[in-house]
Amino acid sequence: MSSTAAPSLNFRDRLRAFNKCVCDGARLMVGQGDYGTYVAHIQKTHPDQAPMTEREFFRNRENARFGVGNTSGFRCC
Amino acid sequence: MGALQKHGPWALVGALGAAALAVVATERGESINALWVVVAAVCVYLIGYRYYSLYISNNVMRLDPKRETPAHRHNDGLDYVPTNKTVLFGHHFAAIAGAGPLVGPVLAAQMGYLPGMLWILAGVVLAGAVQDFMILFISMRRDGRSLGELIRAELGVIPGVIALFGTFMIMVILLAVLAMIVVKALAESPWGTFTVAATIPIAILMGLYARYIRPGKIGEVSIIGFVLLMAAILGGGQINEHPTWGPAFTFTGTQLTWMLIGYGFVAAILPVWLLLAPRDYLSTFLKIGTIVGLALGIVVVAPHMQMPATTKFVDGTGPVWAGSLFPFLFITIACGAVSGFHALISSGTTPKLVDNEMDTRFIGYGGMLMESFVAIMALVAASVIDPGIYFTMNSPGALLGTSPETAAAAVTKLGFPIGADVIAQTAKDVGEHSIISRTGGAPTLAVGMAHIISSAIGGKAMMAFWYHFAILFEALFILTAVDAGTRAGRFMLQDLLGLISPTFKDTSSWGPSVVATALCVGAWGYFLYQGVTDPLGGIYTLWPLFGISNQMLAAVALTLATVVIFKMKRERYAFITIIPTVWLCICTLTAGWQKIFSPDPKIGFLSHADRFSAAIAEGKVLGPAKSMDDMHKIVFNDRIDAALAVFFVGLVIAIVVFGVMACVKAYRADRWTALEADPKLAPAE
What we know:
Chain B: Belongs to the peptide transporter carbon starvation (CstA) (TC 2.A.114) family. Chain B: This is Carbon starvation protein A. Chain B: It is a multi-pass membrane protein. Chain B: It holds the Pfam family CstA. The complex is a heterodimer of chains A (77) and B (685). With 77 residues, chain A is mostly helical. Chain A is built from 3 helices and no strands. Chain A has helices at 11-29, 35-45, 54-66. The longest helix of chain A is centred in the first third of the chain and has 19 residues, at 11-29. Chain A is flat, with a radius of gyration of 15 Å. Chain B has 685 residues and is an all-alpha fold. Chain B has 27 helices and no strands. Chain B has helices at residues 2-26, 34-61, 70-73, 85-96, 100-108, 113-140, 147-155, 157-186, 190-213, 218-241, 245-248, 253-269, 276-301, 325-332, 341-346, 359-383, 387-394, 397-400, 404-414, 420-429, 442-456, 463-500, 510-533, 539-567, 575-597, 605-617, 628-668. Classes of the chains: A mainly alpha (77), B mainly alpha (685). At the A-B interface, helix 1, helix 2 and helix 3 of A face helix 4, helix 13, helix 15 and helix 22 of B.
């Protein structure tokens, strides 16, 4: 999600980066963060732990947005 | 030379904006092009962003690109994740933009487009965007804590509890008003009711698909949902014509109210993946898409403003809502100029995802400017339709009667000549039985949007489709807000009740959950029912109450920001939050006072109640009440509304008093007393 890759001048790379930005943006709008970033983070900081599967991650995020005890899914007027 | 290069282009932007504003403000007699309004707004935003937000970030916040943000400090790959600035902007904007900036400006158009436009522009640059930016900054420096926690920490425990309770009451009013907009838009409209009802099975289908068939494929499932939605709109057209199904989907406002209350209760206790989350995808993407589409439509079509710059209703005699320009315009347009609810969002998920402190300027200040632009577009949409149609749709039924002839006569008498045939033809064009007294803002906005979009795509033949598309778009995200809001309200209520009886805090057990949900639905349901059965049309009574409460929450948030500025010992810059706080307090306290005590029964709740109880004592039934029962109900509702206004006034006064005390204490202290998290510098990566 945090794009750390050096900016490329290649048109196709740029298009790909733009697409990723749009898709990430659209997913985060509904509370779904980037799975790849999550896996990378777990592998880097907790190499002994197995990361959640993509399906578990999806459900975890869904519950974090609207689930029990959480008000962060609250939308503005 | 350096200064010229740096500021020269901005001076040109400023000059262009000034010229556009001059055109908008001085054009009299003939209609102007809506593009002038758009250009003026965009220039104001650019200048405000370039200079004022930079001033705030350099002097008040002193944002530090090297300082570690909560996303880095607590990075867990889940809730705290350093996120690309543009991606996070989208997330933040999608969370703050809703029905508010679309409805408020439509209602405010009864005074002409100029007063509303000036307030939206001045309000957002000096108040709304400042609030969002400051609260995002404050929360980010405190590990992304919520508004309630921030108030408790910086102002004290008692103000914290007051603010929590106030937020809950404000949310109740918000949900009631939002639900009422849906009811008003769908009443007696089989086409609209069918399409909105169809969203429930569509969402459930999507929910099952995203849970069991292709988990996590949001794009895919949203496209399926979107196609089904478009089919539902087309199907609604067939239903509308059908001799048996048409009447089967025709409901009165009261019937829809009960359905919505039942729906709200069931939806709030269903598992989130089944209904809420999938509908959230649809409503979010449709919302963003429609906003972009509307912006393109306005630029391509470049429609003319039909509404005069100002109407005679600035004196407070307008039929859409009661009260004079000051203070009521400033509470009618809340979202789009300044909205207290954003303080909840800015202290929600966004601060936990900020990658670099410098990004908050774009996300906090810029995000609110974007929402303000949505409000400007709504104002344009309401102003490009014939003013006669505007007042036909937004005046109370008691004034207009029920036939095109009576409505045309009444609106012409108001000073906006219109023929009965035009009213009947417009209703036919948009595929509705009647457009008379379709209050609530949504139908008006839908007619405006249909007018603009059909000029670009499809022409008159597509107008009914675009009208129902616009209604669906609004109803969809309002229902999502009602659903998510009921859930959030339930958790807030369980928190509050937990202060009295700890068993209530258990959000996972059934008993307390059902009780809290029922209380929450009951609370907004009461105001919804009251509004829908209100002979004056509900919006007339409840929208000011909603506006007052929302602006008061903004005053509370800005008070918190002021206290934090004092605690940082930067009080010489405190004017940037003190000015909007004082202005909001003046507006909301005056409006609150008038709503309670005004001797004019059109404005004051108590004088309205007195008038009706005097009539009860004489045994008379006053119109628009139809029976003695109605009379008693009106008096009771008036008193409840008055009590609520008293509560909101008391709430804001209490918070401001606590705020002033905290500022004085911080001013006397000889050092920094704000409670920021450890300013450890981010490790260089």
